[in-house]
Specification:
Elements lengths: L2 H7 L2 H23 L5 H7 L4 H26 L4 H21 L3 H29 L5 H30 L1 H22 L11 H8 L2 H21 L2 H9 L3 H25 L10 H16 L3 H29 L4 H29 L2 H19 L10
Helix pairs in contact: 2-6, 2-7, 2-8, 3-4, 4-6, 4-15, 5-6, 5-8, 6-15, 7-8, 7-12, 7-14, 9-15, 10-13, 10-15, 10-16, 12-14, 13-14, 13-16, 15-16
Length: 394
């Protein structure tokens, strides 16, 4: 164990400050990534582009995130991980400035590409850094706190962004995020301890992990679970409009319910996820898949739809904590390589789930999209079983 690591372990106050700084970064990342979804139409009008073109510019961040997550630990080499995280946050700040000031479609694309690099790089390193900031038995709690930023962004980013965009214009929304990210950048510099690279990373570490049968099964189950979630979530709005017949006001309330339920999931994750992770692994697919079935059966009622969405939203914030805890316990000898693989797998699953759901929606119906989500959840549950086959051998 190097001296820096030992120092961090003996200074819990400084370490928890760093965890909260990372939680704010998560909130800003989620807000920056998904805010344009609620501002798509005015952004397209302001840039004299079609909504389809603007949507492609938004999705380019996901494509760059996959590439960055696989490359970051290798390209960072022996650089101190503190300064890599600081650089990722600086990329986010630059991205927001470029998007807010974008005079044309090309600059928007560049800004979103920079954000994708930040997303992939940050998430690939995040769990490995958390493992160095707190003692092993506190890792699930620290992950829950960090993902609390996801709950905040999920609850408030879209409705607040949409409201402010209507009052002041979409550019103002992005400008409003820049001072928060700037403060977060300074906070990183002040509270993140020095985190020297343990060893030089390369693709051999990732290949070594992929040769482990239990890690292969875990990665596949993780992809099925995330693919199921985002096959449904991406097309939740058209489902609610077509099946539940909700207006814009009711839709906003239902999405707020879903987002606020995430705080319950964050609290539950910090309180209950500890020790043996195996029993928890199938919960995301089981609970979120069941909520999707509930929407298919009872989604015509806005009240029933709201209840199903609250259940889905609570599990959504536990989702990441459960699987990143699995990673921290079962790839603890190569956490950065595992983080790269996990983030790439998750981002790819989100993209593929959205594509598959779109084909089902256009080719058959919105119900077919949700049935596809349930099928993926069932496959994940079958693969996971009791979770023991996804754990490293004793």
């Amino acid at each position: 164990m190097d001296a820096t690591f030992a120092d961090v372990r003996t200074k819990p106050a400084a370490a928890w400050g760093a965890v909260f700084s990372m939680a704010l970064c998560v909130a800003m990342l989620i807000a920056s990534e998904f805010m344009p979804v609620s501002l798509l139409t005015p952004m397209a009008e302001g840039l004299h582009a079609t909504e389809g073109q603007t949507g492609q510019a938004i999705s380019i961040s996901g494509l760059l995130a996959v590439a960055a997550s696989l490359l970051i630990t290798t390209l960072a080499g022996t650089l101190n991980r503190k300064w890599v995280l600081v650089a990722m946050t600086a990329f986010m700040l630059l991205s927001l400035v470029l998007v807010a000031a974008a005079p044309n479609f090309a600059v928007l694309m560049i800004g979103r590409a920079l954000l994708g690099i930040c997303i992939g790089g940050f998430w690939a390193l995040a769990t490995a850094v958390i493992m160095r900031l707190v003692p092993e038995n506190e890792v699930p709690r620290a992950l829950a706190l960090m993902y609390g930023g996801q709950a905040i962004a999920a609850a408030f980013a879209a409705p607040v962004g949409s409201y402010l965009g209507g009052l002041f214009g979409w550019r103002t929304v992005f400008w409003a995020l820049t001072p928060i990210v700037a403060v977060n950048l300074v906070w990183h510099v002040l509270v993140l301890p020095s985190l020297p690279a343990r060893q030089r990373q390369d693709f051999r570490a990732m290949i070594g992990l992929l040769k482990r049968p239990y890690f292969q099964r875990g990665l596949a189950a993780c992809m099925l679970s995330w693919g199921s979630a985002f096959t449904m979530f991406t097309y939740l709005r058209p489902f609610l409009e077509q099946v539940a017949g909700v207006d814009v006001t009711t839709l906003s309330i239902l999405l707020l319910v879903l987002g606020c339920a995430g705080f319950v999931g964050t609290w539950a994750a910090g309180r209950f996820i500890k020790g043996n992770i195996a029993p928890f692994l199938k919960l995301p697919a089981l609970v979120m898949g069941s909520a999707t079935v509930g929407l298919l059966l009872f989604g015509f009622s806005p009240i029933a739809a709201g209840l199903c969405m609250a259940i889905w939203g609570a599990m959504n914030t536990m989702f990441s904590v459960i699987w990143m805890t699995w990673m921290s316990q079962n790839a603890d000898d190569a956490p950065e390589a595992a983080g790269s693989l996990m983030v790439a797998a998750i981002q790819a699953s989100i993209l593929l789930g959205a594509v598959a759901g779109g084909f089902l929606l256009d080719g058959i119906s919105i119900q077919a999209t949700f049935i596809g989500s349930v099928v993926l959840a069932a496959l994940a549950i079958a693969l996971i079983g009791n979770g023991q086959r996804l754990l490293k051998p004793e």
